[in-house]
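Reply to dn_fold:

You asked what the input looked like. This is it:
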Amino acid sequence: MKLVIAIVQDQDSQILVDEVTKNDFRVTKLATSGGFLKSGNTTLLMGVEEDRLQELLSIIENNCKSREVATSLLTVTMPGDSYVPYPINVKVGGATIFIVDVEEFIQF
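and this is what came back:
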């Protein structure tokens, strides 16, 4: 068994959760925030048997697309009111996935 930890953008999370559960995977949804843009994202925890891992990864890939958003360096790096923000485009979205071996699974 594997534990899949997927960090996705908030705007992709509900569609992804719907698709994951529709395909008989169990999922736990956690509200999290990123360190770089300080914006909200969602962390999903999913236990999956090894023989269904690629199916789950395909669902994640098909539902989490990267996109560019405009932000400013002020929101990224510097607090204060004397700094003039410089607009930049940043690529966000997609999914960051960690796959961890599960030593033991117990359900009560």
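Helices lie at 10-22, 53-63, 73-77.
Hope that clears it up.
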